[in-house]
Batch of 2 targets.
Target 1
Amino acid sequence: QVQLVESGGGLVQAGSSLRLSCVASSGSFNRESMGWFRQLPGKHRDFVASISPNGGSTFYDDSVKGRFTISRDNAKNTMYLQMERLEPEDTAVYYCAAGPPQWLYWGQGTQVTVSS
């Protein structure tokens, strides 16, 4: 069964950095666009960023543009989200996903908590 596994979340202070990773169990994901989403309890899961299969095209939500960078290493079946200058408003569970536009595949999520 195809799996996506996130890691790298944690508790940090405002202004800090974190890097999230998402490892895919199958190299077939290298042919798909992938993305990061985040969700607060009781809220919708919101789009954060996405990246094309070869990494040449990236898209960001305005709330993270200039602070977050999405990238991927297809040789390692891994996607990353480098998060800089974190703000308390970035606190959420972060999910990686694949299989747009419906986003058919999801990881289990990793918690990011930013204290003020």
Target 2
Amino acid sequence: QLQLVESGGGLVQPGGSLRLSCAASGFTLNYYAIGWFRQAPGKEREGVSCTSIGGGITNYADSVKGRFTISRDNAKNLVYLQMNSLKPEDTAVYYCARGRLCRGSFDYWGQGTQVTVSS
């Protein structure tokens, strides 16, 4: 069964850090583009970051550039999103999803993990 599962969310103070993980079962993450998305209450879902097939290309939303880093651990079949210097506006449910291209559509999504940035 194909499945994506996010983990690592939680409550953190402004300026803090979290590392989200995206784990796959039923397929190999490195054969797909993997995107991180987020959705805050009352807002549309937005793309946060993406890593291309094989990880050669990464991109970031302007709002997170310089603060977030996407990476792969192919041995563990994981994709990470390291989030530093977190701000209250980063509060959202974060999802990972797989696709063929970062600018294409994504066909499998995880259930999401809540990130709350608050003092």
